[in-house]
Specification:
heterodimer; A: Butyryl-CoA Dehydrogenase, subunit A, domain 2; Butyryl-CoA Dehydrogenase, subunit A, domain 3; 3 domains; four-stranded mixed β-sheet; 12 helices; B: 320 residues; alpha+beta; seven-stranded mixed β-sheet; two-stranded antiparallel sheet
Chain lengths: 389, 320
Amino acid sequence: MDFRFGGENDTFASEVHAFLEREMPRDRVHADPEDLSGLAEPFERALLRSAGEHGYLSTTMAPTARARFNFLVAAFDAPLIDTAVTLAGYALSTFATDAQRARFLPLVEHGEIEMCIAYTEEQAGSDLGAQIASAVTDADGFVLSGRKVLVTGAHKADWCITTARTRADVPARDGLSMFLVDMALPGITVVRRPTMNGWTLDEINFDGVRLGPDALLGERDAGWRQLLTTVAAERSGMFYLGFARHVLDELITYVGSASRDGLPLADDPLVRDRIARLDLELAAGMRLAVRTLWSIEAGTPDPALPPMAKVYATELLQRLAQAATEIAGHAGLVHAPLFTEGAVTHAAAGGRFAFEYLERVHGTIGGGTNEVQRDAIAQLGLGLPRVRR
Amino acid sequence: MDLTDPTPSTEPAIARTTLTDLVACAEARGRAGAPSSEHGSVLSRYLFLFAGAADELAAAERGGREFVACITEADGSARLDATATVAARDRKSWIVSGVKCFVPFAARANTFLVAARGSGKLGVFAVDARAPGVALTPIPTLGLDEQCEIAFDQSPAIAVATDATDALEQAIARALITLCGEAVGAARAALDHTVEHVTTREQWSAPIGTFQAVQHRCADMLIDVTTARDAVYDAAGAVDRGEDAQLAASRAKAFAIDACRRVTAAAHQLNGGEGIYADQPVHLWYRRVKAIEPMYGSPDFHRARVAAALLGSRGEPNND
């Protein structure tokens, strides 16, 4: 796998690569197809702590290093993508009080806690301003009520970052606040709902959950502004490219070993053409992501670049899944969850290509739909007029 | 679909049915989104018809017996001349050995119809599902159509036809066109579901179907569904008029599957987060169209056949 995109002497990437080679299982002992990561929670928590010991969960890691880390963990299917540092690191570092930072940053950096983020509601998907979950002030703090949907990993999270209305009489941009919620509190229930690819997404019900004043994250009623910067900071898109690298490598390996009608697939000019195209597209995605990161590290972020990188990478993953399944034909439709033990009857790439065809559907929807991203690219990147919504 | 005709007739039902009607039934099945084995039944009956196997055809049309055609082998090739399974003479009957793959609903079969090489020619041999040497291994596929590998190890068989290449080609072509009809039905249902969703789902106090990005995607879906449906019915009509069924099938498959796949992918995109849940129907149409994609030849394979018809046979995939 070509992982040294930081250059020949990319010792950080080499180190992470060695760490993942050592720590990731090659059998299904730790498999859990009902979790997005494909791996069981005890394994994930142990790996998280180990990553913490190696300093990989530092909240002060430079964006390019964080992106390279995300690329590699994705390429290894390691359950280190939706970590507390990735999901909550920015919000904690930027908005938390000194007391909150002192409490949470060590837990996050040592890999001691899992977190989830819960902003979306049933009526508030792309339109996050339509949130109606409420946090009503009382003598001891807040009472949180509402239902959050499409949450990744709520069933295993220790803490949740969420948003709720602290003022009902004004638009969300003036009446939303951000909260740090202990998932063990009374009044919280999590419902796991199976997706088309076997793993579950969660719904969280907050039913009169009593929060102390220290649950407020950032400024009261400033949740909208915080949310916009947090959502924007979530995306380097590099983990998508890690998945793409992995699947393209699997496809190249498969094509190098499979034959049809006695002819190696690698000799088929149509197959060769498609694989060449995908390799060029992946290289383009890498350059786009690197450009995005450079602009952030240089202190001159271009707000059009993260959505460009997200659109490009998520749609590349769909083209890749299509190419792999189509090239492999019947064998490409044999499906197996991640970390399935042993050979799967007549499967190409152990059932991965079919898994990809189902899995890559949600990348262009989650984290801001690609339609919304394209609006942002046109408006922020080209200055096209914004439609008032 | 039940092709049994209550009116006594000397002619089998399959011979009195137009392919256009069979495609209409297939389209309705596709709308339901469920995996189906009906194309296999269509294939078996046409196979008996073209192979002149009147007794087997009568048995198939009486109902109660499941004939499952076993043609594809491990490499997924759609070339009949690449068949490796063999049938050897054993006094008055035959013995079949080989491995067939990716056979949908194989466990429901009473009788397997196995394409195999006997006496130098490609024949079709009937093997009882409980015959010695028959072993089924499930293959888990995203189409959820209960596929199996079927290994035949010296299994006793009866010859349905010992020279069956033409009958197989004719039957496969017709079954393939009905499969394309299923894909069109699935795509149309996915589009209808999507239109309902974008009309009722509101964001920013407006149905998301008012947004141009959504409207344009829906418009493209309608173009794809309309052109794919016309392509498939055009192919069925051509076969009903006695034109080249194999070429008609290749033209339908190569065009319609890509279009239907774009539609079901767009349906997922426009149904958003809710659409990816297992208890929502969108993935069933998405899976069904995809499952049909490699059956009896990939889109590449069928484009190569269309090209051969246009440009001559150089590189034609099935010119044995």
